[in-house]
Sequence to fold (177 residues):
Amino acid sequence: MEKTLKNENNGSVGWHVVYTKPRHEKKVFEELIYHKYNCYLPLIKQTSIWSDRQKIIDKPLFSSYVFVFLNNMVEYYQTLQINGAVSFIRFCNKPAIVKESEIEIIKKMIDSCSQIELAKQEIKIGEKRLIQSGPLAGFECEVVSVNGKNKILVRINSLKQNITAELKGTYLLKIII
Fold:
């Protein structure tokens, strides 16, 4: 069930996207947790390379974004009081509300796919497939070629973002239109 109902104060109940100061995602997330908000910060593993060493770090998938579930306008304004929170993401002057199903897709992709990244360039529409097995079974995706490797593309429409990830080709079933 999608949780995007209007409350009595004309605010939207659901997953909102807090825009943070640069590199403040973890601090804002921890502060939201401290204040008992239902929030989500998708983190991916990334190898950082320095001249003398390499280290695997947890990096936010969406730079300067933290997801928070809000129930009313009071929570909306309280969230903006958190140190490091700048504003809420808006499209066409309306709050960007992320569907519960899109949050679940992001969580499943992070838990089950390797080499997850945001698709930085505009990717041309490719072949559409249905994931038939594995943890993402039932989701539709597009197959794209990125850096010579077959990857899937999942669109998060409410954020106007694309996520790519490697997935075994045997998981994909061709959709015939």
Summary: The chain has a mean pLDDT of 80. The longest strand covers residues 149-156. The chain is about 15% helix and 40% strand. The radius of gyration is 18 Å.
